[in-house]
From TrEMBL:
The Glucose-methanol-choline oxidoreductase N-terminal domain, residue ranges: 219-333
SUPFAM superfamilies referenced in this protein's UniProt entry, alphabetically: FAD-linked reductases, C-terminal domain, FAD/NAD(P)-binding domain
Domain Glucose-methanol-choline oxidoreductase C-terminal: 428-552
Species name: Salinicoccus hispanicus
Positions in coiled-coil regions: none
Protein's UniProt name: GMC family oxidoreductase
GO molecular function, one term: oxidoreductase activity, acting on CH-OH group of donors
Xref: Pfam families: GMC_oxred_C, GMC_oxred_N
Length: 572
């Protein structure tokens, strides 16, 4: 029997970037807010001496426990989905801060074209540019409307960067200057220019200098130790919820954080949402938490799963096209080329978002009239800090990944090889979606989330084109050998593709084709807000975190308005 707790104004489910932003903003506004996090509380000091590649990168120390809660996947509607037993194509974080603690720090604004991709594509290239199987749609918001919230997130996170020459002109400079240049990145920058592209420094959540944000939180200067991706920052120099937003919420007595609290259902009475049900993961006790407003701010997969379990919204049906919950799932695909050079670089030093990027082949920055795809991808080389277990590239001419030749070549190539890759557009496709599995269940007896996903012809066309552009740039660096990635015929969940999955609770202007409005408020339950990468109708040519942060700030504004206006649908 679940114990019913005292009612709160706002309950926030998940304390990653999105949830911690909402919690901090609600606390500052004087609202009574409870943050529920299924993992443990973590602070900067918990990551001291945590430079253990096997534990954190191979063993996925900071990720969801797949033995208790995983997903199933299949490539098409005819296949039986099977459980994912280890992480590969994406990572689901756990503990306070979520993915905002183990991320690399790349902090982008999506392009104006992304937010109006359907209308702009139709206007410029015609409605028959893509087949109807590609479910592109406008986001229900414009870049201009979201820009103030991008600025607010960047100030909170202290983002280091410079003006993108191919992007919209910034109204304000980045809060901190770009990160350092290195010999490798200088050579890549020169190669980009020789290839006719316009390079600039990658916008970074790793601080180029010590920074104090508008809430008074100090983020330290990056030490370039090379342990960002899949690690928490022991220096407090990578912007994350545990150094920027959660401490702000905790300054207010009207905020409470409850850890080891796994939310399993959104509770309804007489058809109206009244709160959530959660399980204490240590004692297995169940609790009902009543609330005026429920804010779902978990991982893309778990946001969608929670709505499906709670029978909120209409599940997407790929056969009829009806419904929107689970629709428009997209995975980032990353074409890449690794070059092997005579020059030796110090590649152990680095940072997660220490890089140089070109945007010449991204968004609609080039003419697609005679091309068999739209959009493109941002091409970057980053010096993240090489690690010895998983980062030991050798030329393709080395036939075996073991033995004396492999060992000798990997030692030689360790500081003489580097890759450039693209964050590539992936468009939603009719049969790529999320649903509940009819067979497999999680540790709580609930159906697992089922992923149905495969690569599309559009993916293959973009991958080929962008791969050519990357290779042209690497050729300007005069490599002695190079390896180019190959896109497999079918999606496989185990190889590491990328960690940027979106869709499932998409935003839009039409309740028939979206789950939430542009304040991320559910059409079908106006006291429920769903925030995260799950809101994206497609995957653009950038990492999603900056856009998640901006959307979270706008949603917080909407939640406050909803509470102050006594509950109507939030509209402009």
């Amino acid at each position: 029997m679940a114990e019913t707790l005292d009612k709160r104004e706002v309950v926030v489910v998940g304390l990653g970037w999105a949830g911690s932003i909402v919690a901090a903003e609600m606390a500052k506004a004087g609202k009574d807010v409870l943050g529920l996090e299924r993992g443990a509380e973590k602070k900067t000091e918990d990551y001291l001496l945590a430079h253990d590649e096997y534990r954190y990168v191979v063993g996925h120390e900071m990720m969801q426990d797949l033995s208790k809660e995983t997903i199933t996947y299949r490539n098409n509607l005819e296949e039986e989905a099977l459980p994912m037993r280890r992480f590969g194509a994406f990572l689901i974080g756990t503990d306070v801060g979520g993915g905002g603690v183990h991320w690399n720090g790349d902090t982008w604004r999506y392009n104006p074209y992304d937010f109006e991709i359907k209308s702009r594509t139709d206007e410029k290239y015609g409605e028959d540019k893509l087949s109807d199987d590609y479910l592109i749609q406008d986001w229900g918001i414009t870049y201009e409307e979201l820009e103030p919230y991008y600025e607010k997130y960047e100030k909170t996170a202290g983002v280091s960067g410079e003006q993108n020459p191919m992007g919209p002109e910034r109204k304000m400079p980045y809060p901190t200057p770009p990160m350092k240049m290195t010999p490798l990145l200088s050579d890549f920058k020169a190669a980009c220019e020789a290839a006719g592209a316009t390079p600039f420094r990658t916008p970074s959540g790793n601080m180029s200098e010590s920074y104090t944000n508008p809430d008074g939180m100090t983020i330290n200067a990056c030490q370039y130790c090379g342990f960002c991706e899949k690690f928490g920052c022991e220096w407090g120099a990578k912007s994350s919820p545990i150094v920027s937003t959660i401490p702000v919420a905790k300054q207010h007595d009207n905020f409470e954080m409850r850890t080891h609290a796994n939310v399993v259902d959104i509770v309804k009475e007489d058809g109206e949402v009244t709160g959530v049900r959660f399980v204490d993961t240590r004692t297995h006790e169940e609790f009902i938490q009543p609330a005026d407003v429920v804010v779902i701010t978990s991982h893309t997969t778990n946001n969608t799963k929670l709505l499906l379990h709670s029978d909120l919204g209409t599940p997407y049906d790929p056969e009829t096209g009806e419904g929107a919950v689970g629709k428009n799932y997209c995975l980032h695909i990353t074409p890449s080329v690794t070059g092997f050079f005579d020059t030796e670089y110090n590649l152990s030093m680095g940072a997660g978002a220490l890089g140089v990027t070109v945007d010449d082949f991204n968004n609609d920055n080039f003419d697609h009239s005679d091309l068999d795809f739209i959009h493109g991808g941002s091409i970057s080389m980053k010096q993240q800090g090489k690690r010895p277990i998983l980062e030991n590239a050798v030329p393709d001419t080395v036939e075996k990944n073991w033995g004396a030749e492999f060992k000798a070549e990997s030692v030689k190539a360790y500081n003489r090889s580097a890759g450039a890759w693209a964050q590539m557009i992936t468009l939603p496709y009719r049969t790529n979606y999320l649903s509940l599995d009819p067979t497999y269940k999680d540790d709580y007896g609930r159906p697992l989330l089922r992923l149905t996903y495969d690569v599309t012809d559009h993916d293959r066309n973009v991958h080929s084109y962008i791969g050519d552009r990357i290779e042209e740039i690497i050729d300007e660096m005069n490599p002695i050998a190079k390896n180019r990635s190959v896109l497999d015929e079918h999606f496989d969940i185990l190889p590491a593709h990328n960690d940027h999955i979106v869709g499932g609770t998409i935003m839009g202007a039409d309740p028939e084709t979206s789950v939430v409005n542009n304040y991320l408020q559910m059409w079908d339950a106006d006291n429920v807000f769903v925030i995260g990468g799950s809101n994206f109708p497609h995957n653009g040519g950038y990492n999603p975190t900056g856009t998640v942060g901006a959307l979270a700030y706008r949603a917080a504004e909407g939640i406050e308005k909803y509470l102050d206006d006594n509950g109507p649908l939030v509209e402009d």
